[in-house]
Predict the structure of DUF1275 family protein.
Amino acid sequence: MSGAVAHLGIDLALVSSDDLLLIASIVAGFFGGALLSGLILRDTLFRMKRRYAAMLLVEGGILTATMLLALRGVDFAVPLAAMACGLQNAMASSYRGLTLRTTHVTGVVTDLGALLGNRLRGRQVKGWKFGLLLSILIAFFGGGLAGALLLSQLQMWALGFAAALCFMLGLVALTIAPKYELPVA
């Protein structure tokens, strides 16, 4: 979103409307996905609950709709894809007090560098934090690589793999999540 919001500012400063609507729709889509996550999950702390499973199923549905629209060349596919990203990013914003971002890595790389710097200075660093952040970075890189390879071979049908993964993980989460949840005040 940093680049999209900066791009909006540049377009406004240059009074350029070439892609203003597209960029604004990407920001709005991402925001809408995060908003939807907040409405359904009711908090940003990762806990395996049935609502979390439902969010994975919703994300799979959004990605499927994105793929179908993109295959038809419908422009609305772009902000819908951004909505899936915003939803994903907000689904697990924190874990054990650690801020998590799953759709961008600026904060992940920053946190890894700061943790390593602290460790090199002899300060105590929790290994699980470093391991979790490193696994997110590696997964992000691997996902980007796999996505690019699939896209080059299958075009927009590649989104079907991401959608299927969300559906499968949602169904698995549904089976392991507690059947009854305490109401959230």
The mean pLDDT is 86.
